[in-house]
Design goal:
single chain, alpha+beta, minor pseudopilin epsh fold, five-stranded antiparallel beta sheet, four-stranded antiparallel beta sheet, elongated
């Protein structure tokens, strides 16, 4: 007859309950910070998408030797389009397909954009949906086009679903020469190249 020693029988119910209690306590501690991390990752993704869209509009304008517009289309998301610009009617050219777009469903409406027509101080946050819909355009030199009415020069990417203490904001600047820069207003530019000021 085969005998099993006491030490090789497995775990007791008390040992399993202690292990489950420890795992549950760790989950309670980690869950809130991981939720904020996920929201900040979505915010960074949206900001990078907007910056890529702006870069694409600039490159297409130089490549096609015409004015190309970057349009923020929805005040409740980070949706945007890039199109050939009709300078007479201040719209995308009729009959031309969009060159690129980001749909509102791509960010689950957690990130929102705000825009300003000047290179305003990034320490002051723009309200979500401020000046949206809005556009900026690039000419064949890759500069901000003078034919686009009130072009955006600053875009704030925000996640207003988080508490004010947890919210992170990223700012995108577009200068007259067409340079596009993403920065974090909470960081000092003197100490960190990702800072705004």
């Amino acid at each position: 007859m085969l005998r099993i020693s006491a030490s090789s029988r497995g775990f007791s119910i008390v040992e399993i309950m202690i292990a489950l209690t420890i795992v549950a306590m760790l989950m309670v501690l980690v869950a809130p910070s991981s939720a904020i991390w996920i929201q900040n990752t979505r915010l960074r993704s949206a900001a990078e998408s907007v910056a890529r869209g702006l870069q694409l509009a600039r490159i297409e304008a130089m490549k096609r030797n015409t004015t190309v517009a970057f349009n923020m289309t929805d005040p409740n998301s980070s949706a945007w389009t890039v199109c050939l610009y009709d300078v007479v009617n201040d719209v995308c050219q009729a009959g031309q397909p969009l060159l690129a777009q980001r749909d509102a469903s791509e960010d689950n409406s957690t990130t929102k954009l705000g825009a300003d027509t000047t290179l305003s101080n990034p320490a002051t946050a723009l309200a979500p949906g401020n000046n949206v819909p809005s556009r900026t355009g690039f000419d064949f030199y890759g500069r901000i086009s003078s034919t686009v009415l009130n072009p955006m020069m600053r875009i704030d990417v925000r996640n207003p679903t988080l508490a004010a203490a947890d919210e992170r904001r990223l700012v995108i600047f577009i200068n007259l020469g067409g340079t596009i820069r993403v920065c974090d207003p909470q960081l000092s530019l003197a100490a960190n190249p990702q800072g705004c000021q």
